[in-house]
Structure formats: C-alpha cells, structure tokens
Amino acid sequence: MRIASWFAARRRVASSKESDMHTHTLAQVAAHMPHDGWGGGPGWFIVFPILWFLLAVAIVFLVARGARRRFRNGPPWAHHATAGPNPVAILGERYARGEIDETEYRSRLDVLRSSTPPAADAG
Q1: How far apart are CA 38 and CA 43, in angstroms?
Q2: Could you tell me which residues come within 8 angstroms of residue 94 by beta carbon, excluding any fewer than 6 positions away?
Q3: Higher pLDDT, 98 or 1
Q4: Among 38, 63, 81, 94, whose Cα sits 20 to 30 Å from the Cα of 100?
Q5: CA 50 to chain centre
Q6: CA 100 to mean position of chain CA atoms
Q7: What is the rounded CA–CA span in Å between residue 58 and residue 65?
Q8: Is residue 89 within 8 Å of residue 68, measured between CB atoms?
Q9: Distance between CA atoms of residues 45 and 55, nearest Å
Q10: Residues 81-104: tens digit of each pLDDT
Q11: Residue 31: helix, strand or coil by DSSP?
C-alpha cells in the first residue's frame, strides 16, 4: 500500500504542476496580446474604412469613365435630333408635292445613293 499511495501522491503533484504551468502560460500569452486578446490594435479601425472608401471611389470612377466614353458624341437620345432630316425622305416629299418631276427625282436619288458626291459646278 505504501507504493500505491506514493503513486497517487505523485499523480496529484504532477497534475497540479501541469495545471499551474498551463495557467501560467495562458496568463503570459494573454498579457502580451493587445486589447485582452481581441485584435491587432487600432490600425484595422483605420484601414478598413479607407479600403471601403477606395472601393467606392473606384466604382464611381469606372462608371464615370464608361459614361464619358458612351456619351463622347453627345447623349444617345440627341443623335437623331442633331443628325438632321433624311435627304432621301426630303427628296421623296418634294417629288410627292410635285416640285420636281420623275427624271429629276431619279437623277438626284442616284446622286444621293452613290458613294461619291457629285463634282461642284464652277459657275
């Protein structure tokens, strides 16, 4: 029995030393961590808002650049108003009103549909 009690006492001493060692080690680790072990200091409170701001600026920049490229020649709804009336349609209206005859209509229509403009009269 003496040996059994010696082993039991040895186990109690070893377990109390291990628990003291773990407690002491955890206390040391917690003492070295900032903010009671909850983070990396105040730097992240500054970095993340800056990152969100930069993301928002990048999105606004990309949208504005795309809009500038798309509206380089003016907004799309204004292209029809600035293009002017269709010359073939005007020629058709003049022929319908009787201002020009069929031969003049056909000759002017051929000129409008040709790829090269007619030579200017020197007179």
Answers
A1: 13
A2: 100, 105
A3: 98
A4: 81
A5: 17
A6: 57
A7: 10
A8: no
A9: 16
A10: 555 678 888 989 999 999 999 999
A11: helix
111 Cβ contact partners less than 8 Å away, ≥ 6 residues apart: 117, 118
The vertex-80 CA angle with 67 and 92, nearest 5°, equals 160
pTM of the model: 0.32
Q: Which residue has the tokens 């917690």?
A: 30
Q: What single string gives the DSSP state of each residue in 37-56?
A: GS-S-THHHHHHHHHHHHHH
Rounded to 10 degrees, what is the CA torsion of 26, 32, 35, 41?
Answer: -140
In the block, residue with structure tokens 């009336």: 85
Nearest to 92 by CA among 119, 120, 112: 112
Enter the tokens of residue 16: 């109390």
Q: What length is written for the chain?
A: 123
- pLDDT, residue 34, reads 55
pLDDT score, position 52: 94
Q: Which two tokens stand for residue 69?
A: 């490229």
> Helix, strand, coil proportions of the chain in percent (round to 5)?
75, 0, 25
Within 10 angstroms of residue 91's Cβ, the number of other Cβ atoms is 19
